[in-house]
Specification:
single chain; 28% helix; TolA/TonB C-terminal domain; two-stranded antiparallel ribbon; five-stranded mixed sheet; alpha+beta; 243 residues
């Protein structure tokens, strides 16, 4: 019996300890569930937060008041015309108004004509227009053409009617000299060469080029139907392959 009572006391002690431990664990769990949310806060969604902070749109302004309708008053004017034709009077008027025209002023213009108007010109016509002109003024004459114009060498080459080929200088041929000579030419109104100026070229070839070009002849260059003097460039080519 003593052993049974001793075992029963031990069992009761173990049960008491288990109950205390279980109760302590439950209190700890409850405290954890209560305290943890106080330190860990949930972040609000940004989209919903911005929606809450944005002010609502202002209301639409009321439409402007409609303008009052314009009242057009139709005034009927009585005339003696009906579709462009004179109406037949229905009765004789009590008083007939006589229309008196103003007397025209006398003609005081010097050189005017009978029946003219004041301010006319001498030699006008009866019942003319004030300030009228007897006949239109003639057009101004065309401006005179320039004394000398410059034409490209290509255009002037097409107007060449007589060409004298230059003679190859013997000394230049023996020295094997070849190339081009450029001349500044002045062509008269009749197409002949009036003056030549050497622009560039070998001295051994320039004299021969001048002697040949001054004998050339061109068609007259016309400007507005009138011949004019022309200034252009002439290029003479010297090549040993040409006799």
């Amino acid at each position: 019996m003593f052993e049974d009572s001793l075992l029963d006391g031990r069992i009761k002690t173990k049960r008491g300890r288990s109950a205390v431990i279980s109760f302590a664990l439950q209190i700890l769990i409850i405290c954890t569930l209560v305290v943890v949310p106080l330190f860990v806060t949930q972040e609000l969604p940004k989209a919903e937060l911005m929606t809450m902070l944005v002010a609502p749109a202002p209301p639409q302004p009321p439409p402007p008041p409609a303008a009052p309708a314009k009242v057009v008053k139709v005034v009927k004017v009585e005339t003696d015309l009906d579709n462009g034709k004179l109406k037949t009077p229905t009765k004789i008027p009590d008083k007939i108004v006589k229309i008196v025209e103003d007397t025209p002023p006398p003609v005081t213009a010097v050189g005017g004509v009978v029946g003219g108007v004041p301010g006319g010109v001498p030699g006008g016509v009866p019942n003319g227009i004030i300030g009228g002109i007897v006949s239109p003024a003639p057009p101004p004459p065309p401006p005179p053409p320039p004394a000398i114009i410059r034409v490209s060498s290509g255009v002037e080459a097409g107007m060449l009617i007589r060409k004298i080929n230059p003679v190859y200088p013997p000394l230049a041929r023996q020295a094997r000299v070849q190339g081009t000579v450029t001349l500044e030419a002045m062509i008269s109104k009749d197409g002949s060469i009036e003056g030549l100026k050497i622009v560039n070229g070998h001295p051994m070839l320039a004299g021969s080029a001048v002697d040949a070009v001054k004998q050339w002849k061109y068609r007259p260059y016309l400007l507005n139907g009138q011949p004019v003097e022309v200034q252009t460039e002439v290029v003479v080519i010297y090549s040993l392959g040409v006799a």
